[in-house]
Amino acid sequence: MFRFLPVLAAFVAPVFSAASNEEVVNSLYKTFGENDVEGLLALFDDNLKYRSNLSDSMGFCVSSDNKDEMVEQCLSKIGLMLPEMTLTKKSSFSSGEDAFVHSQQCLPTVGCACFAQHLKIKDGKILEITDFMDTRFVEEALTRGNSGMSPRATIKLTYDLFAEGRMEEFSQMLHDDFKFYGSGPTGLPCDASEPKSREGFLGDCLAHIPATWPGFHLEPIHMLVEGSYVFVTLKATSDNGMNTFFGHRHKVVNGQMIEFRAFDDSMEMFKASKAKKEL
Question: Can you list the domains of the chain with their CATH numbers?
Answer without folding.
Answer: 17-142 (3.10.450.50), 151-278 (3.10.450.50)
